[in-house]
Structures are given as C-alpha cells and as structure tokens.
Design a protein that fits this description.
8 strands; binds adenosine-5'-diphosphate; 205 residues; single chain; four-stranded antiparallel beta sheet; binds magnesium ion; alpha/beta
Length: 205
C-alpha cells in the first residue's frame, strides 16, 4: 500500500464564529510526505484548521491548497483527505469491515473490490481477523486502530489527526504513537497531527 503524497498549504486563513476568532491569518506549509505536529491549548483553533482542510468547515478569508489546487470550494468527498477524529466516531451499527469500507463505498467502490483494500488496511493496523466485530466489542485502542484503518483505506495523499490518542491511557497512547509513525513511513502520506499534549508532540515530531 503506497499513497500518492501531496504538499499542503494554508494561506492567511481566518475563521470567525461570531466574535470568536478561531483562526486569525493562519498560514502553514507542509511538504509532500512531511509529518507535522501542531501543538496548541484547547480552544486554539486546531480542530477548526483540520476541518477547513478536510472540507467540514469553510474559511471566511484565505485559501487552503492540496498540491497546487485550491480546494476551499470542493466537498469533503472530492478532497481525498483522511481524518481521524478526537472521539472515535465509528458507526456503532456497522461491522469493522463496513466501517473501514465506508470511504470506499462513498466513492462508488463495490464490496468485492473494497474487500482486499479493507484487508490490507486491517493488516496495517494489526487487526487482521476483526472484520466482523461491532465497535462495542472492541477496546478503546482497537477502536482507534479501526478509525486509523478507515482514514487510510482510500490511500489519501493527506492524513489529518485530531488529538486522536487523547482518550487513551498512557501505555496505549505510546504504543499507537509508534504505530502512527510506522504507518507514516509505510504510506509516505503527508500527515498533520494536532495535539494539546507537549510530550506527545515531542514524541512524534
Ligand atoms: P481546538 O481544537 O484547538 O480546541 P477549536 O478549533 O475547536 O479549538 O475551537 C476554536 C475556537 O472556536 C474555540 O473558542 C471554540 O469555542 C470556537 N468554535 C469552534 N467551533 C465552533 C462553532 N461551530 N461555533 C461556535 N464556536 C466555535
Ligand atoms: Mg479540537
């Protein structure tokens, strides 16, 4: 499994919610294949920045680029950005297989074509054999591995991680930090990881 990789650029992005400036003139560049960690306290606009790149939110001013394309007006499914959310955000009524296949199904890939790709994603996060389980039959760490598999299954050139280890206990967090670094090496994807945890930022970047 190898992804295309793409440079990412935020250019003078501003986002206001009423009187709150969630982002004010925010600029950041990531080279293709680079792993960048953004460290900031709660409320500093980290989630807003990721949502604007993924297409779940819109900038009031400024532009976001993936490759050399300004993507601000594209819907999320046309951006091919993988995202791992702060909460686990799995579909509770779907099996592990269907959760991981979801981004492929959204793009019109049928079940038979999706199967080997889901299998590879499961291998990558070391959950081979778990495809028929429901999320409620998994531990927190396993659920976050499923979320990671779902984020990489479409081999996105850009992967966004929103404090995705914060809900896990220390030992599991450290283990998954290693896994994320390994997956980054294997896929070569451009990764933007945000956290409020200084030791996590130092461990990753
Ligand atoms: P972080 O992820 O760094 O904790 P956020 O991007 O979630 O920060 O939030 C940045 C600021 O914007 C906070 O003050 C937050 O309350 C505010 N904010 C975020 N989303 C919304 C929203 N949908 N409506 C109103 N205010 C919001
Ligand atoms: Mg946040």
């Amino acid at each position: 499994m190898a992804s295309a990789r793409a440079p990412v650029r935020y250019s003078n992005v501003t986002r206001r919610y009423g009187s709150v400036h969630a982002l004010a003139d925010f600029s950041l560049e990531l080279a293709a294949g680079e792993f960048v960690t953004l460290l900031g306290p709660s409320g500093s606009g980290k989630t807003t920045a990721l949502n604007i790149l993924a297409g779940f939110d819109q900038a009031d001013e400024g532009h976001v680029f993936i490759g050399d394309r300004s993507v601000g007006s594209l819907p999320p499914e046309k951006r091919n950005v993988g995202m791992v959310f702060q909460n686990f955000a799995l579909f509770p009524h779907m099996s592990v297989f269907d959760n991981i296949a979801f981004p492929l199904r959204m793009r019109g890939v049928n079940r038979a074509e999706a199967a080997p790709r889901v299998e590879r994603a499961l291998e990558m996060v070391k959950l081979k054999g778990y495809q028929d389980r429901r999320p409620n039959a998994l531990s927190g760490g396993q659920r976050q591995r499923v979320a990671l598999a779902r984020a990489v299954v479409s081999e996105p050139p850009v992967l966004l991680m929103d404090e995705c280890l914060s809900a896990l206990d220390l030992k599991l967090r450290e283990e998954l930090q290693q896994e994320i670094m390994r997956i980054h090496r294997e896929l070569g994807t451009t990764v933007l990881f945000v956290t409020h945890d200084q030791s996590e930022a130092l461990a990753l970047s």
